[in-house]
Automatic annotation (TrEMBL):
It holds the Pfam family Paired_CXXCH_1. The keyword ATP-binding does not apply. InterPro entries: Multihaem_cyt_sf, Paired_CXXCH_1. Residues 255-286 form the Doubled CXXCH motif domain. Residues 1-37 form the signal peptide. Keywords: Signal. It comes from the Bacteria. This is Cytochrome c3 family protein. NCBIfam families: paired_CXXCH_1.
Length: 286
């Protein structure tokens, strides 16, 4: 298996506890702009050249706040993640409310989501990376002397009042670590109907021996997985999903990156515009 294929396969097997997102999609051949070219003018450019609300004077780099070419956190099903991931049990999710609207089984929050939360739960600075720019783990002199500016942060941590700070109690947020459509779909029956009939049937294909699912967002579905589709993450037991015994075979789950792409220039990093509630209605039939 080549490097690109390995990254794609690892990213889509999200289990443990993430951003198989657009970067993973790009490396398997979906036409797209380079990641840095896409995020330069967005709020995810946290470096000194950033034009967003928050920025760090210690580097003009962009990718370093999330990725590192060496020594990444290998518990993440995300390409070369440069931040330490919290344990899935750190987070309280929507299913804790016991609402009857959840028809499917839940699982520990997937690493795709925890990667997002490594900034967006507000517990650590956005510059708390594993490997900083320059020589040595601490980074070069410019990085060490760097300071944060921006109304939505304090010492690099997202303010508690910032809408981007989700905290660790996610019970007031869209369910993650949840079977798509209430379950019913699995690698042994990839085209089955969802248990909850208020969901659109996802598409599926095999990549490097792993079945992956997505929901087409085009008005006329093209049956091709793209960055602008709603991405579902393959979860199962064992290495795919430690601690989850609800299903013995891999199946599609919803995570943060199902709806969000951190490399896009779309508002709030949604995979498509939500005009007319298009993001919601991509999956939900209402």
């Amino acid at each position: 298996m080549g490097w690109k294929q390995w990254v794609a396969a690892k990213a889509w097997r999200d289990g443990v506890g993430t951003l198989a997102m657009a970067l993973a999609v790009a490396v398997v051949g979906v036409a797209s702009l380079p990641a840095q070219a896409q995020i330069t003018g967005t709020k995810h450019n946290l470096g000194s050249t950033g034009t967003g609300v928050n920025k760090f004077s210690g580097t003009a780099e962009i990718c370093v706040f999330c990725h590192t070419p060496h020594g990444a956190d290998n518990s993440a099903a995300v390409p070369l993640w440069n931040r330490r991931l919290a344990a899935a049990t750190t987070y309280t999710t929507y299913d804790s409310l016991g609402t009857s609207s959840l028809d499917g089984k839940t699982a520990p929050v997937g690493s795709v989501s925890i990667a997002c939360l490594s900034c967006h739960d507000g517990t650590q600075s956005m510059s708390a990376v594993i490997n900083a720019p320059g020589s040595g783990l601490a980074g070069d002199a410019t990085w060490v002397a760097g300071t944060w500016a921006g109304a939505n942060q304090t010492a690099g941590r997202l303010n508690a009042t910032a809408v981007t700070n989700l905290g660790q109690d996610l019970s007031n947020d869209h369910p993650i670590g949840i079977q798509y459509g209430g379950g019913g779909i699995s690698v042994t029956n990839p085209t089955a109907a969802t248990i909850d009939k208020d969901f659109k049937a996802p598409k599926n294909k095999a990549i490097n021996g792993t079945t992956v699912w997505w929901v087409d967002t085009e008005a006329t579905p093209n049956n091709t997985r793209e960055k602008t589709d709603m991405v579902l993450y393959t979860r199962g037991t064992g290495a795919l999903n430690p601690g989850y015994t609800g299903q013995t075979v891999a199946e599609p789950f919803v995570e943060c990156a199902s709806c969000h792409d951190p490399h896009t220039s779309n508002a709030t990093f949604l995979r498509i515009s939500n005009a007319g509630s298009a993001v919601c209605l991509a999956c939900h039939t209402k």
